[in-house]
Amino acid sequence: MERPTPDRPVGRDAVRRAVLGTARRLFAARGPRASLREVAEAAGVNLGLIHRHVGNKDDLLSAVLEEGLRHGTARLGSRDDAGDALRSMLLGAAANPDFSRLLVWLSLDPGAVGRPLLDTSTRPARAVARMTDPPPASDLHLALALTVVYAWPVLSEQILDVLELAPAERDGVDSRMADLLAEIVTGSEPGSASGSESGSGG
Fold it and tell me: N or C: less crowded end of the chain, CB within 10 Å?
């Protein structure tokens, strides 16, 4: 019987944590066509353990996406302010861009998965659409804001390079973008969004 080495996860929970974290990073970097075998090797687990504790590749992708949605939903908490919610979503996505990168890969390569991976009713965007204090100004305001939430973490460096922003000008740029996004989604006047102090965290 093979003995576990110190760097190998042992037990169902440890294996799932290692596999989900590794899969999130690998799928975000290389796309959903990365193989289960590659995930197993990078996570330091036997391929059979992925099948036993997670399932097939679609099951793994679904679990990674659901974990990302849980984090997104947790960031919303009990908020009812659409601007504050979108601000928090953008700051969370910018700090942890793997989820956004994976969504982009899945959009570009829909044939990489064999079935729908998410129940769309559970997405944080649905919760934001129902917020009332204040609500999104319109469906198009919300669509624009969500485009920024999911695209900015993937493209921000390239966009800032194209604009030739100096390093000093990039300090706090995610927070300033989040403030502006909060204003846009609710149709607020500049500077009137919740938590609109530059450089404040989410």
Answer: N
Name the token pair of 190.
């500049």
| Residues in the chain, total | 202
- Tokens at residue 88, please? 């928090």
The number of C-alpha atoms within 13 Å of 200 and in the hemisphere containing its C-beta is 13
Q: How far is residue 150's CA from residue 131's CA, in Å, rounded to a whole number? A: 20
175 Ramachandran zone, left/alpha/beta (phi>0; psi -120 to 50): alpha
Residue 95 one-letter amino acid: A
Judge whether 76 and 124 are in contact, CB under 8 Å: yes
**Tens-digit pLDDT profile for residues 61-114:** 989 988 888 888 888 888 999 999 999 999 999 999 999 999 899 888 877 777
- How would you class 41 by CB atoms within 10 Å of its CB: exposed for 0-12, middle for 13-18, buried for 19 or more? middle
> How far does Cα 174 stand from its chain's mean position?
15
**Which positions ≥6 away from 23 have C-beta within 8 Å?**
39, 43, 60, 61, 63, 64
Buried b (16+ CB within 10 A) or exposed e, 147-168: ebbbebbbebeeeeeeeeeeee
